[in-house]
Amino acid sequence: MEKKAFLYxxxxxxxxxxxxxxxxxxxxxxxxxxxxVVMRTIPIAVIGITGLLFMGRLRDIAAADTRSILFVITxxxxxxxxxxxxxxxxxxxxxxxxxxxxxxxxxxxALFISVLFLGESFTWQKLVGIGMIVGGVILVR
Length: 141
Hints:
Number of helices: 7
Distance between the termini: 31 Å
Oligomer: single chain
Strand content: under 5%
Helix content: over 70%
Number of domains: 2
Mean pLDDT: 92
Low-confidence stretches: none
């Protein structure tokens, strides 16, 4: 992995590690997980569209092919809406220290989907990684 990708991955882990603490604090109040997901999405959409306008890249949307757009939208609906809704529902009623690591096992699903449908290779290193993830979930639970 190149250094830039590694640093961005670490930054992602830091940000994604901080976010659930804020979300859990917000969900402690009188807020439904569905409303929470919608409220979380609004600033993302506003900032994203504003960024496209500011950078003069709004036309990039029209230039994208339909198939790519549909796949990205489907991924957004699955992860950004349904996944976030189920995550907020779990976070509202459970401990963040248990919910977050369990939800973070999504690489297992991604690995199996990638091998079965995207033709990616399955290696011993990936098998060991799966074992470590499963072991971690068992320990946290």
